[in-house]
Amino acid sequence: MTSPRRGAEGRALGAPVASSSSGSPGSPAHGGGGGRFEFQSLLSSRAPGADPTCARLRASESPVHRRGSFPLAGPGPAPAPPGPLPEEARMDLNPSFLGIALRSLLAIDLWLSKKLGVCARERSAWGSVRPLMKLLEISGHGIPFLLGTLYCLSRSDSWAGREVLMNLLFALLLDLLLVALIKGLVRRRRPAHNQMDMFVTLSVDKYSFPSGHATRAALVSRFILNHLVLAIPLRVLTVLWAFLVGLSRVMLGRHNVTDVAFGFLLGYLQYSIVDYCWLSPHNAPLLFVLWSQQ
User: 254 with 198: CB under 8 angstroms?
Assistant: First the structure.
């Protein structure tokens, strides 16, 4: 007599044979549960209890991972893209022609200014000429010009003299204002071989561009040539004085060559402004009346 257990096993073993003759394997009606059991057993091998190393290897062999060549996005927010590099860390591989020209001009300016600074120190090549260069420096300083103009204006007793001196005072004040404004905007340092032993140093004079002595020399020389009747030798000496004042600024190491060149140009243009805004008893009567009362 067959035991119930053996009969159950016989039926379980015989079920696939019967189903293979009458229907397609895996159908529910013909004992297809065995296929589902095998599929579930495969899934159970990949359950959380499986080997994590194998799971990682399978993830790395995934076609999606191979195509993307980057790790799969996690549940957190995506990382932000890297920001742009700072300006000092960038390299300009294609500079413009203007930039190259300006850098070349600056290099030539620094080299030439250093070569011409032969009186910058006592031990320089022309150190013995320093007293003469400092005398030229004092002759182009703004304070002697302002004090001298005010003194002559107070001693003048003619309307024509007062008019000329009043406009000279206006030109000197305009020069101080424009030079201080440009120096504060540009803020170019003085040459490295400069010795800070100037006659009088103001806070704005620690900057180099433009040269205030050069602007004042060009302005005053053009003013004198246009409003004073001078002989030809004196006119030549006036122009030579303005040129030597500008040259002394480079030889003493106070300024670069471009500082003096721009100073000459600025002083020349400043006189055009003064000539256009010329003060006279007709267009500024109140100013002349107040000054005459003093």
Answer: yes
Is 211 within 8 Å of 140 (Cβ atoms)?
no
251 neighbors 130 (Cβ within 8 angstroms): no
Looking at 193, 213, 227, 282, which residue is catalytic?
213
pLDDT for 251 beyond 60 = yes
Gyration radius (Cα) of the chain, Å: 47
Q: Is residue 287 pLDDT above 80, yes or no? A: no
- Catalytic annotation present for 255: yes
Instruction: Give pLDDT, residue 125.
Output: 78
Rounded to whole angstroms, what are the CA distances from 132 to 136, 148, 232, 245, 281? 6, 22, 25, 11, 42
* Catalytic-residue membership of 65: no
pTM summary value: 0.64
Distance (Å) of CA 273 to CA 16, 213, 227: 114, 18, 15
